[in-house]
Amino acid sequence: MYLLQQDTNGDLTLSEFFGKKIPPYAILLHTWIATHEEVIFKEIVKGRGKAKSGYRKLHFTTKQAVKDGLRYFWVDTCCIDEASSTELQEAINSMFRWYQRSKRCYAYLSDVSSDTKSSNISEPGPTFQPSWRESFSNSR
What's the farthest any 2 CA atoms get from each other in the chain? Predict the structure, then answer.
């Protein structure tokens, strides 16, 4: 499993972990944008992709993971090397387990605007929908 982390220069880097050596991590659930705007595995490896609009969700996840005391996080668009069919198949087969074992799961919905005063699920505001409470009641 590849996980992202922010290095001391503020750049994102990938580290590979196996089995019981996988550290605590956050995971991102997100809406996909145009394929050419998503940051992918090889761009992270080469230190590229910051100018793409998809980088915003990585920045969001980095900030939130740090805030939650987590060093590592996983985002499907750039933590799976899709150039390797074997790795892609392994990731597809492992994805449920990866979501299940994450310490935090963040949602980034690029196609939804939010009112920052009422968008925090832990502090429901007047526009908080009961369906959200029900949906997240069993999450960590």
Answer: 47
- pTM of the full predicted structure? 0.75
Q: Nearest-CA neighbor of 39 among 10, 78, 6, 73?
A: 78
Burial class (CB in 10 A: 0-12, 13-18, 19+), 130: exposed
* Alpha helix ranges (H) inside the chain: 41-45, 55-67, 76-79, 85-101, 130-136
Rounded to 5°, the CA angle 83-1-136 comes to 110
Query: What confidence tens digit (pLDDT) does each residue in 16-28 have?
Result: 999 889 999 999 9
Helix or strand or coil: residue 41? helix
Contact (Cβ atoms closer than 8 angstroms) between residue 107 and residue 30: yes
Give the residue extent of every domain in the chain.
2-18+28-111
